[in-house]
Amino acid sequence: MKVAIVPVTVFQQNCTLIWDEETGKGVVIDPGGQVDKILQVIEHEKIDVERILITHGHIDHVGGAVELRDALDVDVEGPHEADRMLMDHIEVQAQQFGVPHVKACEPDRWLEEGDEVDIAGMPFSVLHCPGHAPGHVVFYNEEARFAIMGDVLFNGSIGRTDLPGGDHDTLLASIRDKILPLGDDVTFLCGHGNHSTIGEERRNNPFLKGL
């Protein structure tokens, strides 16, 4: 399994590409924008993209999904349907943040707790982790001890909860009940910034004190 992080847009959101080095088959996670930049990496690495995965419906994670879907002719899967309102009103988010040429995205498949998605030939469990956004999902592979976290938990921080649909207590409950039990040895990629491990965040993240 190979991973490439492509920071996109003024939000510097980590669009993540994961693929199997032998078969070339892979996925794009959270194409927030600058689709040409993402396509350049796909072409350079010769990735056979099978699907686009979305962790949640904020514009910095889904802003380029329709354009990329049209370019690659693949399905968009995720997030949880609790984010339908965010996804349906992506143009409103675009106007608020001054982002042009963004289309609302209707996923080909909404994801639920307990679903499974294939990423580079490996099964990843879907965890519904609301709080940052109502329909936020996390992707986790137990064998690899590896998770795609989106904006639930960061290196040294947690997702903001002052956006529509956000709730601080709900986010902390998601982290306490869904993320921390995965184990301290789990490495995760964040929606913004550097990767980390659950153990590192349990020990040093000031937002997790008391959890």
Major sheet details:
6 strands, mixed
CATH superfamily: Ribonuclease Z/Hydroxyacylglutathione hydrolase-like
Q: Based on helices, strands and strand pairing, what is the structural class?
A: alpha+beta
Number of domains: 1
Counted beta strands: 13
Q: What is the topology, as strand order, of the major beta sheet? A: 6-7-8-9-12-13
Based on Cα principal axes, name the global outline.
Answer: globular
Order of helices and strands: EEEHEHHEHHEEEEEEHEEH
In round numbers, the mean pLDDT is: 95
Model regions low in confidence, pLDDT < 50 over at least 5 residues: none
Name given to the CATH architecture: 4-Layer Sandwich
Question: Strand share of the residues?
Answer: 25-35%
Using the CA coordinates, give the radius of gyration: 16 Å
What does it look like?
The protein is globular, with a radius of gyration of 16 Å. The protein has one domain: Ribonuclease Z/Hydroxyacylglutathione hydrolase-like (Metallo-beta-lactamase, Chain A). By secondary structure, it is of the alpha+beta class. The strands form three sheets. Strands 6-7-8-9-12-13 form a six-stranded mixed β-sheet. Strand 6 and strand 7 (122-128) form a beta hairpin. It has seven helices and 13 strands.
